[in-house]
Write a structure and sequence with these properties.
CATH class of the largest domain: Alpha Beta
Number of domains: 4
Largest sheet: 7 strands, mixed
Mean pLDDT: 89
Number of helices: 8
CATH superfamily of the largest domain: Collagenase (Catalytic Domain)
Helix content: 10-25%
Structural class: alpha+beta
Radius of gyration: 29 Å
Low-confidence stretches: 6-23, 133-143, 175-179
Strand content: 25-35%
CATH architecture of the largest domain: 3-Layer(aba) Sandwich
CATH topology of the largest domain: Collagenase (Catalytic Domain)
Length: about 625
């Protein structure tokens, strides 16, 4: 039986744009509308989740709101509104009476209440006009520009000057699935993005293009300003940054397409990337992942997408950047954007001092502060990069599945051992997030993930481990009880027929022994060691080495005071361990996933003792 692989058409699976829908409502004055509403408040949208109702089996969406000011009724701090529509799995529904609510929105909410007590926005989107940008928890301003909001605000204040109305405190909503990352830039689902190098204790490297600079600044001054700006963010997060050199990008930094996890800073705009007349700099990221997040891990229940690269461009011809402290301040601000920070406020007359004095305020302060964060900035960025509890992490795995008339149930065949890591704890819980069942099924037992094919399949095309295709796939993750790792992907990349059900595929046996039959010659059985290298034939298949070449085995190919190299199988996971006494071994650094047959390790741990090393392939 032949199987067709599933190939991802794009690396970034994002939610499709929703079509516009409108509902028809009877004419009513603002005063009539506020009287008809059960309750009215100014609130910030924290996030949402879709679910299938047990009552009617239909898809609904629950949206969390933080109440900032009550105009009619007595409110708890947090409420939810529920509307028909949303998406669960591959099924979606749209209802015209459901308002469009994005995480971070600040709106005036005219609410209705159903017989079961649940709240909803009265008359769809017209019952939730915008008041202000996210980030400012303050009374709703009468200076809002939406005429619908102005009229409704005025009517509510006139009709209910003391905010009299129903008691809704029983509708208090706990954030069972917290989705709020106020102050961070998010997609329409309220999902932000983050770099994950810090979770592994690894630095984010940055490159600098200094082909041109603001008048009067030297390259040394500019690079020092860059260093200071990165240090400001490193001091309040789990992040570290490493300077990787000065180089010419040849194009606008935003247009460099290399997804290498680096940040590229272009201290000039020679390529005319910035079009705004008063814009001093632009910072951003390229990211990938599911629209609901997960590839960037989960922090306190908030899912993140994965940042693949970051960029920053400075408009070096702007006179304001000729002052070194302002140049440094703008760098710090734009790096904040690279780290997914949004503006604290875009109000030129912002009355809230905390928001106005933030590094992420939309206008440069130009007061000599340089790369100095305000009190607003650290707690916001720490939503993505906590200082004392980073998420766990793991490494993607691949399976080359052996199929036989009687599916082999042999240790190490059609299974991988999952290993999770964490900078703070070893107490981790592993779970399967989702899996496909195109050609078989996945099952998790302890830390071992096993794939059982649904039939005997003939040899398939061997998919590229560097690609995105798969015959079947499982997504797993580790949790430390608070944070969760990015999704760990296990992909089935090939099916290999095994006529003799011994765990050694026919094609592999024929390649090395000339026949698929282990009885066609001596020392061809699964437990034999044909080449005498101490590794059985079946384990040679598992390791990706040759069973007829004693030199084809996991071994060091070179060692020196600066690094280790070994014969590896590309895209397998290897751990490097060290010891001082050959009794107590410890992991010397992060696991290594080679992309070629050469594995290498250079990050030796600091030690005053002589260390001995060994390399182990994770089964």
């Amino acid at each position: 039986m032949k199987r067709l692989p599933f190939a991802l058409a794009v690396a970034c699976l994002l939610a499709g744009a929703r079509p516009g829908f409108s509902l028809s409502i009877a004419p009513a004055t603002p005063d009539e509308r506020v009287q008809n509403a059960a309750a009215i408040c100014h609130a910030t949208v924290l996030g949402a989740e879709s679910f299938r109702s047990e009552a009617d089996g239909r898809i609904h969406t629950r949206t969390w709101l933080r109440v900032n000011e009550a105009f009619k009724g007595k409110f708890p701090a947090t409420i939810t509104v529920i509307h028909r529509g949303g998406r669960v799995g591959e099924e979606g529904e749209v209802s015209s009476d459901a308002p469009r609510l994005n995480a971070g929105d600040e709106r005036l909410f005219l609410l209705g209440q159903r017989a079961d007590g649940t709240l909803f926005v009265d008359n769809g989107s017209s019952g939730a006009p915008a008041l202000a940008r996210a980030g400012a928890v303050k009374p709703a301003s009468v200076s809002v520009t939406d005429p619908n909001a102005v009229a409704l605000l005025s009517a509510a204040r006139t009709r209910y000057p003391s905010a009299t109305g129903p008691d809704l405190t029983a509708q208090a909503a706990s954030l069972r699935v917290p989705l709020a990352v106020p102050g961070l830039s998010t997609n329409a689902s309220g999902v932000s993005r983050r770099f994950t190098a810090g979770d592994r204790g690894e630095p984010i490297e940055y490159l600098v293009d200094a082909d041109a600079l603001p008048a009067g600044l030297t390259q040394a001054q500019a690079l020092n300003a860059v260093s200071n700006a990165f240090r400001a963010w490193a001091n309040v997060t789990s992040l570290r940054f490493a300077f990787a050199g000065v180089t010419s990008f040849g194009v606008a930094a935003a247009n460099v397409s290399t997804n290498d996890g680096r940040i590229r800073l272009q201290l000039h705009d020679n390529f005319n990337y910035i079009s705004g007349s008063s814009t001093l700099g632009i910072g951003g990221t390229s990211f990938s992942g599911f629209a609901s997040g997960g590839e960037g891990g989960s922090i306190a229940g908030n899912e993140f997408m994965l940042c693949k690269r970051g960029y920053l461009v400075m408009k070096h011809t702007q006179a304001a950047l000729q002052t070194l402290s302002s140049f440094e301040e703008v760098l710090c601000h734009e790096i904040g954007h690279v780290l997914s920070m949004d503006h604290s406020s875009e109000n030129p007359s912002e009355p809230n001092t905390t928001l106005q004095q933030a590094t992420m305020y939309f206008q440069v302060h130009a007061d000599g502060r340089g790369a100095t964060l305000g009190s607003y900035d650290p707690p916001v960025v720490q939503q993505a990069y906590p200082t004392n509890n980073t998420p766990p992490y793991g490494y993607h795995r691949m399976l080359h599945v052996v199929t036989a008339a009687a599916a082999p149930s042999i240790t190490g065949i059609n299974e991988v051992e999952m290993r999770g890591y964490d900078l703070q704890t070893n107490s981790l819980t592993l779970s399967v997030v989702s899996s496909t069942a195109n050609n078989g099924s996945f099952s998790l037992g302890g830390s071992t993930l096993r794939f059982t094919p649904s039939a005997f399949f003939s040899d398939s095309t061997r998919l590229d481990p560097a690609g995105t295709g798969f015959y079947d796939r499982a997504l797993l993750r580790y949790s430390d009880g608070t944070n969760s790792s990015p999704f760990i992907e296990v992909r089935v990349l090939s099916f290999n027929a095994d006529t003799f059900s011994d765990g050694m595929p026919d094609n592999w046996m024929t390649q090395f022994f000339g026949s698929a039959n282990p009885g066609a010659g001596s020392l061809r059985g699964p437990n034999d060691d044909n080449d005498g290298d101490g590794v059985s034939n079946r384990n040679e298949f598992r390791l990706g080495t040759s069973p007829v070449d004693a030199n084809s085995v996991l071994r060091f190919t070179s060692t020196s005071a600066t690094g280790l190299n070994w014969l590896a199988t590309a895209y397998e996971v290897y751990e490097v361990e060290a010891t001082t006494d050959f009794t107590n071994w410890f992991r010397a650094g992060n696991p290594v996933v080679p992309t070629t047959t050469n594995g290498s390790f250079t990050n030796f741990p600091a030690s005053t003792n002589r260390l001995f090393f060994r390399v182990l392939r994770v089964p």
